[in-house]
Write a sequence for this structure.
């Protein structure tokens, strides 16, 4: 029982560390895509490690199956959401650059 608790504590601690590092990274990075990347890493790895730690604590029950479904949903939706955010940022930067270029040409 004590070994299971220690292993679970290690998983949860590493997951919380990843969440803390990602939170620091979101506020520290300047560029939107860097912030988006670190937030996506927080979702995938931090949540995975914390949920695995909780699964180890609870043992193999019906709740464990629910946690597995949560992990599958997070791992399926987080990369998709990150990709859409990155694509929106890229498209908005592309149109802003074109608009500023046209204004510079017209002004001269």
């Amino acid at each position: 029982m004590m070994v299971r608790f220690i292993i679970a504590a290690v998983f949860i601690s590493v997951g919380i560390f990843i969440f803390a590092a990602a939170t620091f990274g979101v506020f520290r990075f300047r560029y939107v895509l860097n912030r988006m990347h670190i937030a996506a890493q927080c979702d995938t790895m931090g949540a995975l490690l914390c949920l695995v730690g909780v699964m180890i604590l609870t043992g193999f029950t019906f709740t464990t199956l629910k946690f597995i479904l949560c992990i599958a949903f997070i791992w399926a939706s987080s990369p998709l959401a990150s990709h859409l955010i990155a694509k929106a940022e890229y498209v908005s930067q592309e149109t802003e650059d074109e608009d500023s270029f046209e204004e510079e040409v017209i002004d001269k």
